[in-house]
Fold this sequence. Notes:
Blueprint: H1 14-33, H2 37-52, H3 63-76, H4 81-96, H5 102-153, H6 160-180, H7 192-220, E1 226-227, E2 230-231, H8 232-239, H9 250-264, H10 268-284
Helix pairs in contact: 1-2, 3-4, 3-5, 4-5, 5-6, 6-7, 6-9, 7-8, 7-9, 8-9
Amino acid sequence: MAQRPRPAEDTLDTKFLAERLRHLSEIENNAGQATDTNHLEDLISFAEQQLELRAYICPVAEIQREATLVIDLLEEWGVPKTVIQKLSKLHVEPLKKPETTPQDARAALRSLFEEKDSWAEYTDDYEDQMKLYTWRLFPVAIILPFLAVITFHYAFRFSPLLVLGLLFAGAAGSCVSVLAKMPLLDVALSAELEAYGRRIFSRIAVGVGASLIGCALLGWGLFPISLQNQTFADALNTSLAAPATSPAGIKTLILLGVPMLLGFSERALTSFEQRIFGNIKAVAKPD
């Protein structure tokens, strides 16, 4: 920034520049002596703060261009439009006439540099977190259906295996649902990203619970849905019968697919609730 050409009247604050270069040199020396990652991260943060101050030595003629480049870069990163509009509205006045109030324009540019650094760190964290969640959930979503099929096959020996298989299938559907609904970058710069890990477990737990409840209601015969003349209740009964009639083919697919579907979209349980309690509420309603 200091090496850029500038007119004679736009003098460079050499004292300010020398002070910044001295701080950067100190940071470099301290980084060579750092013994833990926390210290290095603090030094990186301090260095970024020093680099943001380059706005105060930016040539007046280039302040607007630098600000426009920052806004364009934020748009390329997928930063929410509401954030970009807010930044533009907040700094539009100081940046309109940098020749008249150069210090105000440079202060606005420094704020934009700071915002860019914040979003740069956030987008990196976002990509790392989403990649981690995806690589953890993907194998789970692949393995659980196989475990469910195995438990269905041996449920005639030990009946609780049937419930375990339904739980496996519901969890698989919930994992697929989480994978399909990974949040975009339009979450705010806050603790949203850290909280998303906790929400994953809650969504899977809700999906598994909804799947198990829905399977129980279907086994009860609440919805007499059949596939090739096979209802879900028939598939459940077959899995608990003798080995010769253990579920295979379409019955296995029914046992696997229904709880996965319910786990994928736990909102389907709302239809069951209305089917059961709708008339009761209607009766209880006073005239």
